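Minutes, project check-in
Item: structure for the 193-residue chain
Input as provided by the requester:
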Amino acid sequence: MSLDGIRIGFCMSGSFCTFGKAFEQARRLTELGARLTPVMSFNAAGLDTRFGSAAENVAEIERICGAPAICTLPAAEPIGPKKMFDLLLICPCTATTMAKLANGIYDTPVALAAKSHLRAERPVLLAPSTNDALSASAANIGRLMNLSHYYFVPMFQDDCSAKPRSLTADFSQVPAAVRSALMGRQIQPIFCK
């Protein structure tokens, strides 16, 4: 399946250590013909970290996507009513964002974008990155796996010795996961490596 002309809301939440991988996947998707619009959580758009300043991160994703980032609740709300995207990709997706989605809390631009997008029963693809996926966040991941229109990029334990409860998406599988989600299928296996 070609991604030519596919409209993707490319959402980023604050797993700052994986921003480089997320930027790489945004570049890959645009090279495959997808049209991306960035959406950033308050933290992703507003916090300076050791992985880069907020201004640098916003500028980079806007440069890659060729569009201004949606960074406010009022800007995110029309996503669903206007059917702006064929697919919403949250890459990276933090434990906090998954908890909000699993529990119906829509108080960030990324969470509200997902809620708004889902009203048209369109796919939301999550690329998790969290140190507590196999502990406190496991229930939320399971809940989301049981909800319609949510899909996951395959994930793996990124450091089972030092961080035994941590999972991160296999970012290299983002394009394949996008294709699968657009066809209404969860790419398999969900857990890899």
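Outcome recorded: The radius of gyration is 15 Å.
No further action items on this chain.
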